[in-house]
Design a protein that fits this description.
Layout lengths: L2 E6 L4 H13 L3 E4 L10 H13 L5 E6 L3 H7 L7 E3 L3 H9 L5 E5 L5 H13 L6 H9 L3
Parallel strand pairs: 1-2, 1-3, 3-5, 4-5
Bound molecules: D-ribose (RB5).
């Protein structure tokens, strides 16, 4: 089963908990990189911890939540080898896997309701990278 890293700041803490429960019920192995309360904190800390664990192979995929999803997506995409996709609906989540081989999913708790967020997670985890013509473009992402 896929090993999934998950993290959030205070703005994504509640949705993070719901995603963890949802994934564990489905049998995924989930590692929580924090934060562990709704106390105010800094999203780059948690986004980079998740992103680095995906980049170094400790986890296959990562999911990061903040209030908007924007901060964590910017932070995660600073880590070489990470392709983080901020998704507000399920179709983009599917395309981010098929075409971009996204290895990190970003969500905004203040933007996306729980039910839609869980569907996005589900679709994202089930969708497989298509490879082929997309690989050349993905290889270019990590070039200097
Ligand atoms: C925290 O208030 C908020 O700025 C953060 O969760 C996130 O939305 C940043 O992009």
């Amino acid at each position: 089963m896929t090993k999934i890293a998950i993290g959030s700041d205070h703005g994504g803490f509640n949705l993070k908990g719901k995603i963890i429960k949802y994934l564990e019920e489905k049998g995924y192995e989930v590692k929580d990189y924090g934060t562990y309360s709704t106390d105010s904190c800094d999203y780059p800390v948690y986004a980079k911890a998740v992103a680095k664990s995906v980049a170094n192979g400790e986890n296959e995929k990562g999911i990061i939540v903040c209030g908007s999803g924007i901060g964590v997506s910017i932070a995660a995409n600073k880590v070489k080898g990470v392709r983080a996709a901020l998704c507000h609906e399920s179709h983009s989540a599917m395309l981010s896997r098929l075409h971009n081989n996204a290895n990190v999913l970003c969500l905004g708790e203040r933007i996306t309701g729980e039910s839609l967020a869980l569907d996005i997670v589900d679709v994202w985890l089930k969708s497989e990278y298509e490879g082929g013509r997309h690989q050349r473009r993905i290889d270019m992402l990590d070039e200097d």
